[in-house]
C-alpha cells in the first residue's frame, strides 16, 4: 500500500531557509536507505507558500489566491510517496528519519487510495480501467 509522508512547514521553511549541508547529507543517506529497501516512490521539498497559489472553487467560479497563506496554520514543506506493507511500517520508517527541520517539527502519514478503493463508486469498473490506462501511460513516460 502507498502512503504519502507530509513534512509540515515551519517558520523557517516558510521564510525560505534552506537546509544545512549536514541536513542534506543526512536526508540523502536516509533516502538511499528508502530506495535500497524499495520503499521510496517519490519525494520532493516544496518552496515556501509565498511562491505558491491556491484556486478556490465556488460553484462555477474559480478564484486564484497568491501565497503566502498566513491564515493557514498547517502548511506542507515537502513530501515522500512510499510503497510499504502497512501503516506501522511507514511509522517505523518515519521514526528513523532525521528531523527534517532545524527546530521541533511534525511529519504526517496518510494512506493513498488504491484504484480498487473506488469500486463502490464505479460498479462497472469502466472508470477504474480508464484510470489504470492513464497510470500505465504515465509510467511509460518515465
Automatic annotation (TrEMBL):
Residues 1-114 form the YCII-related domain. Pfam families: YCII. Residues 116-142 are annotated as: Disordered. SUPFAM superfamilies: Dimeric alpha+beta barrel. Signal peptide: none annotated. Residues 128-142 have a biased composition (Basic and acidic residues). Belongs to the YciI family. This is YciI family protein. It comes from Polyangium spumosum.
